[in-house]
Amino acid sequence: MDSRVKERFARLWTRYFGGAELPVTFFYSDSASLKAIRPPVRPPEGHHCVISDITRVRRGKSLAFDVDSFGCGGGQRYFGYPSALMPDFEYFLSTGIPGKVEGERYKKSPELVREAVVNMPVFKAPGRFTVFKRWDALGETDQPEVVIFFGPPDVLSGVFTLFNFDEAQSDRVICPFAAGCASIVQYPYLETNSEVPQAVLGMFDVSARPCVPMNVLSFAIPMKRFERMIDNMEESFLTTGSWAKIRRRIGSAQKR
After folding, report:
1. Phi/psi at 3 (nearest 5 deg)?
2. Are 225 and 196 in contact (CB under 8 A)?
3. Residues of the chain predicted below pLDDT 70
4. How far is residue 80's CA from residue 74's CA, in Å, rounded to a whole number?
5. Separation between Cα atoms, residue 248 and residue 250, nearest integer Å
6. Integer distance in angstroms from the first to the last C-alpha of the chain?
7. Number of C-alpha atoms within 13 angstroms, CB side, residue 195?
8. Read out DSSP for 3-49?
9. What is the distance of C-alpha 123 from the center of its chain?
């Protein structure tokens, strides 16, 4: 990570967003610090949502995940370590099977789930580890591929508007129906290979919501697109009186 880019964004973020939470980044690697590797999830820990681990990254602890670090098949799959869907997945996501599978009722019918599964993107992680670091923890050799903001509407409105600052199209931000981990890893990572990368608004997954505060959503951006945003900050709406009102409110919220 170019230290000049890192320091410039941190400085501008403080100037225009006050004490708002710094973004989290991730990248794939074949090596990781032993201290950073998330231990395998074993019974009795059982099912474990990876979004709760990302909370630790948001607080400053770097983490690396490999194929054994997940307590949820979905997390493993959406991080790029393909695994078979659980048996009766179409019933699990919809109506359930009395006495056998409790349905989450996120889709109206098993048939709809089957159709959705056919269109689900799948990719293979290009490295053994998925490494997460908060922006201020990035080192010289780190090459972040996606930048993820977690924040309330005021903060995300600024990031959203900055993303659109140099876009003629008004639909470059997507909001796919997806698991929380898919909205911050799978979908934005796949956008890194797009000719015109899109940003991903997420964290609407009802199952993952308990792992984030009630007023927090996510906004994930491919790094190569994010660098343009940094370059635009000092000539954008962030310098106006309109944003100053929001910036003061963001600052007040951080002091509570």
Report:
1. -60, -30
2. no
3. 42-46, 256
4. 10
5. 5
6. 33
7. 0
8. HHHHHHHHHHHHHHHTTPPPPEEEEEES---TTTBPPPP-TTS-SB-
9. 16
Residue 203, token pair as written in the block: 């964290």
| pLDDT computed for residue 83 by the predictor | 81
State the pLDDT at residue 19: 85
Q: Are 30 and 128 in contact (CB under 8 A)?
A: yes
How far is the C-alpha of 130 from the C-alpha of 203, rounded, in Å?
19
pLDDT, averaged across the chain: 94
Q: Give residue-wise pLDDT tens across range 201-244.
A: 999 999 999 999 999 999 999 999 999 999 999 999 999 999 99
Does the pTM exceed 0.70?
yes
Burial class of residue 214 (count of CB atoms within 10 Å of its CB; 0-12, 13-18, 19+): exposed
Strands 24-29 and 63-65: unpaired
Distance CA 207, CA 129 (A): 25
In the sheet that holds 24-29, the strands lie side by side as 63-65, 129-134, 24-29, 146-151, 217-222, 199-202, 173-174
pLDDT score, position 256: 67
What totals of helices (H) and strands (E) does the chain contain, helices first? 10, 7
